[in-house]
Amino acid sequence: MVKIFETKIVAVGPEAEEMINGANMLILFGHGAPADLAEYCFTIDNKNLNDDIMSGGRLKIDDLEFTITAVGNLVNKNLSNLGHITITFDGSSQASLPGTLHVDGNRGPVISEGSIVSFWN
Prior knowledge:
Protein name: PTS sorbitol transporter subunit IIA
Strand content: 35-45%
Number of strands: 8
Radius of gyration: 13 Å
CATH architecture: Beta Barrel
CATH topology: M1 Pyruvate Kinase, Domain 3
Number of domains: 1
Shape: globular
Helix content: 10-25%
Largest sheet: 8 strands, mixed, barrel
Pfam families: PTSIIA_gutA
Oligomer: single chain
GO molecular function, one term: kinase activity
CATH class: Mainly Beta
Order of helices and strands: EHEHEEEHEEE
Structural class: alpha+beta
């Protein structure tokens, strides 16, 4: 597999961890997220995507790996332009929303400032 994207979590919104714990959703956003959304987001420092994220690829968060099961049709564009996607840990084979990426699992990981998020094809 080839790494196509890597970023670091540089800030954690006050409600971001609850989104993982309560809804199994991880929301990434580059610098400059709207204030009302930023409180639910993990802010990232990079939005340079080297290739399209695809089903069957891998998401790595620190030392944990997840298989990508579905990719919304705006995931690649939104990540490249805004650094913004939602990752849902539910194993769905169909994207629930255009900007949502689904991965295997039924529980999101513990993430903190300094965590590394990467995508592999």
